[in-house]
Each structure stands twice: as C-alpha cells, then as structure tokens.
Write a structure and sequence with these properties.
The protein is mainly beta. It has one domain (about 20-240). It contains two helices and 16 strands. It is elongated and about 75 Å long.
Length: about 240
Amino acid sequence: MAVATSGQFGVPFSRFDLRPADLDALLDRAGTPCELRMAMPCGCGTDRMGDADPGCALCFPYGVVWDPPVTVKVFGPNRKPTFRVDTAGSYETGDAYFTFPTGVVPTFLSRLTLPLGVLTLTDQLIKGSQDVIRYPTVLVVDRAHWVQRVPPVGSPYENVLVPLVLGTDVTVVGRKLVWPAGSPVPDGTTVAVRFSAMVEYGCWEPQDRNEGGNQLPYRVLCKRLDYYLHPRGPDPQLSY
C-alpha cells in the first residue's frame, strides 16, 4: 500500500509520535505557573463533596482536605467558563482542561490555583451559622449588606438594603465574618458579601492518554471551584 504524502511538501504521513519529555520541556518553558493542592477525603467520614459534615471545620463544604501547595506548570485553561447568577451568588460554570507534567495525576477535587488570575465574586452567608466565606483564597472584601424588613412584622412592609461598615459593623478575618457584641444584624439573617479571590479550579476527571506505549502527561477535566459551591447543599450532578 502506498504511503500517502502531503502533496505540496512531499512529507509522508506516519503515526504521530510524542515523547513525554518533549512535552514536559515545553511545559517548563511556556506553561502557566499554578499551585496544585492534592485532595483526599476528610477524616470526618465523607468521601465526596455533597456528603461533607456541616459541623466539620476542616472540610465543609467540600468534604476533602488538601495537601500544602506545590508549584507546577500547566497548559490551560482551554475554554472560557460561563458566568451565572443565582440566589446563592455569582459563579462560573463550564468545563476547562489543563495538561499537567508527566507523572502528575491530580485526585478528585484537587485545587488548582492560578496566582496571576483574580475574580470578583459574591457569597451569601447566614449570620451565626455560616460566617465563613466558602471560597478558599479571599484577597479583599470590599462590600457587605443585609436586607431589613420594615416593620419586622405585619403589613404593609418594605425591604430595606442596609450596608455594613467593614471593620465596624462586621470585621473580616481571612474568610471569617466576626460580629461585634450588640450587632444590629439578627442571627439567621442572610448577609451578602462581595470580595476578590484568586482563580481556582477543582480537578474532576483525569483523562488517561498514551501514545506508542508511552504514558503521556495527563489532561484533566476541571471545573471552576465556584461550581462546587453553588447552589448551597448537595448538587444533584455530583450524585454519581
């Protein structure tokens, strides 16, 4: 059987052969630096996000704990996520793919942080029971408010937006909202918070690839970490 050629250039078509070391070298030279935190189930008894113990301060709401960050270089993301807004806040959806160096195979829900990327996000927390912003890498909180019903009972009534003075009405320490004694915001009130955070992805599914018997670097299907957080509670799409 004759070997097909590319015609104009006269180059025979043959089996594509890629040496993993060549791709690793290209990643090292031109890849995107990121911080990878490998995940494993939390010791509270959960095995996947959605089953997280609400009382566990280590893993809620993800159900996993992470290793210290390791710096790696990757290719990706290769797709722009879709922005959505729902009753639990703003978040990004959609799949993205990252290619990792040979031998790096992230576990389910490992975190991939892009230090050069920053998002503006919102979260809605319940004062007294959900006082921790769920996004892991909060940089700056720039606004918070609650909605007051006036009058508290009876009708007619109106909802009045009440801005919170950061540092006075509420103090944000890392990701935690700390309320002063005598706060006018009743426990159980929904508080909306706007903040900036680093771009982060959760690793979903490694895609095993090989060529000519050589194990190639893994391409991993990832989702914006926001995807795992909205809406609150177990996501039916995670029940597998």
